Amino acid sequence: MSKTWKLIRIMLKMQYSRVGKKNSQTILWIVALLFLLPMAFVYISIVRSALTALYNVLEPLGQESLIVGILLLAVHIVLLLVSFITILNAFYFAEDIDSFIPFPVQPYQLLLAKSAGPMIYLYGTAALFFLPVFFIYGAVSAAHILYYIAGIITFVLLPIIPFTLAGIILMFIMRFVNIAKNKDRSKVIAGISSLVFIVLINVLIRLNTDVDAIMQNAAMFIQEQDGLLRWITAFYPPAYFGTMAMTASSLWSGFLSLIAGVVLHACALLMFMWVGQLLYIKGVLGMGTANKSTFSGAKLSRKTSVTPIWLSYIKKEMRIIFRTPTFLTQCVITSLFAPIFLIIILFMDSSSGNIGGFLDGLSGKHGLLILFLGSLLIVGSNATSISGISREGKSWHANLFLPLNPKQILLCKIATAWFINLIVIGLAVILFIFIIKIEWTLFLIWLPLVLLASWFSSALGTFLDFLQPKLNWTDEQEVFKSRLIGLIGIVVQLGIFGILVLLIWNLDFVNGIYMTAAILFVLVVIAIVVIHSLIHYKIKQGQHQTI
């Protein structure tokens, strides 16, 4: 294992070393933290209230362990979804993999080393969802010290099975995809396949849902101690063993469940290493080859025709995003997860109309405010704008010699992010028109408002990336990894507009959808003017020449 540990240290240093990095993000971190702390308190308060109410309902029935079981199931599902993206980026799309293949190491050792970075992200994600519920449940149930010991061990094991399951599936897929020996097309197909695969799982689960059968089974199992837990976790033993280890009334029962969980995770890890030894390098070797492209005379003439330079620059940005697998995954595919899942859930839920009814039940003012904040969160989570400068890498300074001034270049990058956001907004339009069927007045006001909010979000992300870009990267993943600039952007947007929306919500003299819409339009326009003024100010200071 000494070679494995050396590889892990090398890869983590390459990813997280701060050598040569500037410290100018300190102010941004402070601002983001100031906005994030109130949200954290609100999040913990909501979790505590919901958990206390649920515990009070289940505890008299002897089914309180169901809370922990559902928690572990939900966290495993989230970690599985995150694993597909992180594994694709780290195992296959990373350009540094070619440098490690000649090393005198076994494929499974290289695989374990490449897993270190994604596992850090998984532990961070698990901590966000698992730890608050874990400690609050322990406090509400007056849990014994053994609960906390078993819970910490369970947390350490938590990402292993989702990660290994996603890894094994993707290693089989990539081994098959790379037979075509077409680098770009293979990577794009693999990235889209992960989204399609997860969507199909969701669809199949919902197609096989029988509400009457569920209610009958629930009534039967609710009469038994921990009966609901066994029923809910029957298809996924890791969640059952983890729950029993933490909540079992018998010491030996909890201990045996913990041992069973450890053995199960160890077997999954060994299976992961064995499959990696057989398939990983074979899947990677085809990533370095690509088919030769040819151009006809007519196509060449069309490609070299005169077009406005700003339009050519936007087309160049679009081609880079859609032809670079990592950029396509991070900027386009990842941003589609939330709206696609929402469409599937609402489309296949017979009570989906209740959401439209819920919005109709609110006043026009409150419905518009809710839609505005939700839309801002979705478009603000797109990584296109926060990577606009960083995607250039070491070739950024070539932009200084183009017949475009820096302000025009940044406007083109903002426009590129805005156009990418149109894909997500288009899905939202389909959702509102054909599934939720919200009231037309609300829709016609929301649409131009969200288009303006998307421009503000794109401008803010570009400005933040302009302040502290990451140009010295050797792998496209480094543009997104170990950078929390996206989180800073979301926190700033939701912090500013969240406070303003809260004020508008509680102001009695602001009534009616039209007055609310007018105020929101004015606020968004002011925010856009401020961000563009800051960009112009930084350009006048020569920021584009010193980054």
Could you explain how this protein is built, in words?
- By secondary structure, the protein is mostly helical.
- It folds into two domains: 1-12 and 27-288, no CATH class; 309-545, no CATH class.
- 76% of the residues lie in helices and 0% in strands.
- The protein has 23 helices and no strands.
- Keywords: Membrane, Transmembrane, Transmembrane helix.
- InterPro entries: ABC_tran_2.
- The chain crosses the membrane at residues 65-94, 120-139, 145-176, 188-205, 251-275, 327-348, 368-389, 410-436, 442-464, 484-507, 513-535.
Overview in brief:
The protein is mainly α and 547 residues long. Helix content is 76%, strand content 0%.
Assembly type of the chains comes to: single chain
Q: Topology as H/E string?
A: HHHHHHHHHHHHHHHHHHHHHHH
Q: Over all CA atoms, what is the radius of gyration?
A: 25 Å
- Specify the number of helices: 23
Low-pLDDT segments: 207-211, 214-225, 350-354
Number of strands: 0
Pfam families: ABC_tran_2
Transmembrane segments: 65-94, 120-139, 145-176, 188-205, 251-275, 327-348, 368-389, 410-436, 442-464, 484-507, 513-535
Keywords: Membrane, Transmembrane, Transmembrane helix
InterPro entries: ABC_tran_2
SSE layout and pairing:
Blueprint: H1 2-16, H2 26-58, H3 65-93, H4 97-100, H5 107-114, H6 116-140, H7 145-157, H8 160-177, H9 183-207, H10 211-221, H11 227-232, H12 237-247, H13 251-285, H14 297-303, H15 309-323, H16 325-348, H17 353-361, H18 364-380, H19 406-436, H20 440-467, H21 485-506, H22 513-540, H23 543-546
Helix pairs in contact: 1-5, 2-6, 2-21, 3-6, 3-8, 3-9, 3-12, 5-13, 6-7, 7-12, 7-13, 8-9, 8-13, 9-16, 12-13, 15-16, 15-19, 16-19, 18-20, 18-21, 18-22, 19-20, 20-21, 20-22
